């Protein structure tokens, strides 16, 4: 399962489902919208120390980005608590890593989705939205590679750019606030696993618990 989560070709294959449904709805006269229900990523209550661990946030955040890019209106997680894919630990009720991924997504990503592409390695997944509560852009970068640090140059309509250093096995949410053409401010949220263990159930934000 971990190999699939970290395989960009496998993740791209899942996009076909979103793409096909979006095409059907767009070409029909119905007012129905696309929803994802009971998403858990693995059947039979998930897999302990995978679907309730840090590594699963690669899949989960990629799913949220992919679903939004194909005009999916609602994404329901299976479950809040229960099985090995809940957002809360079934014994302690403490949040699993995906809870914090969902929390950051909810607080930062606005409803307007921006067309985004990344040229270079396929191990980087990139999604962008208008910021939820500010005049800016939120960029999500997911590094599926455990041994490569990426220097990413971010360009907006080929008119302005910034450089972003992206370490191995990390998820970054970068909020860019552009008050005018001469000044760009940004906030960065780096999600990593405790002790660099992908099966850890503790997620670090900017190196802190």
Explained architecture:
- The chain has 209 residues and is an alpha+beta fold.
- It has one domain (2-205).
- 24% of the residues lie in helices and 34% in strands.
- It has helices at 2-5, 8-27, 56-69, 97-108, and strands at 34-39, 72-77, 109-114, 124-131, 136-143, 150-156, 160-166, 171-180, 183-193, 203-205.
- A six-stranded antiparallel β-sheet has the order 3-4-5-8-9-10. A two-stranded parallel ribbon has the order 1-2. It has a two-stranded antiparallel sheet with strand order 6-7.
- A hairpin with a 3-residue loop joins strand 6 and strand 7.
- Helix 3 (56-69) runs parallel beside helix 4 (97-108).
- The chain is globular, with a radius of gyration of 17 Å.
- The relative contact order is 0.14.
- The mean pLDDT is 89.
Index terms:
globular; 4 helices; Glyco_hydro_79; 10 strands; 34% strand; alpha+beta; 209 residues; six-stranded antiparallel beta sheet; hydrolase activity, acting on glycosyl bonds; two-stranded parallel sheet
Number of helices: 4
- Gross morphology: globular
Summed up, the domain count is 1
Radius of gyration of CA atoms, rounded to a whole number: 17 Å
The rounded distance between the terminal residues' Cα atoms is: 26 Å
Low-confidence stretches: none
Determine the mean pLDDT: 89
Largest sheet: 6 strands, antiparallel
Q: Could you state the order of secondary-structure elements as H and E?
A: HHEHEHEEEEEEEE
- Fraction in helix: 10-25%
Q: Assess the beta-strand content as a share of residues.
A: 25-35%
The structural class is alpha+beta
Number of strands: 10
């Amino acid at each position: 399962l971990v190999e699939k989560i970290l395989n960009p070709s496998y993740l791209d294959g899942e996009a076909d489902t979103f793409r096909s449904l979006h095409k059907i709805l767009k070409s029909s006269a119905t007012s129905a919208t696309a929803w994802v229900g009971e998403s858990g990523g693995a059947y039979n209550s998930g897999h302990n120390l995978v679907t309730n661990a840090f590594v699963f946030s690669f899949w989960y955040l990629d799913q949220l980005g992919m679903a939004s890019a194909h005009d999916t209106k609602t994404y329901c997680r299976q479950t809040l608590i229960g099985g090995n894919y809940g957002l809360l630990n079934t014994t302690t009720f403490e949040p699993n890593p995906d809870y914090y991924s969902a929390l950051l997504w909810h607080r930062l990503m606005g409803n307007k989705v921006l067309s985004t592409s990344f040229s270079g390695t396929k191990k980087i997944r990139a999604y962008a939205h208008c910021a939820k509560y500010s005049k800016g852009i939120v960029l999500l970068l997911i590094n599926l590679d455990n041994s490569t640090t990426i220097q990413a140059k971010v360009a907006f309509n080929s008119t302005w750019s910034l450089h972003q250093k992206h370490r191995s096995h990390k998820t970054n949410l970068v909020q860019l606030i552009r008050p005018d053409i001469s000044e760009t401010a940004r906030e960065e949220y780096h999600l990593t696993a405790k002790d660099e263990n992908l099966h850890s159930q503790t997620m670090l934000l900017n190196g802190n618990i």
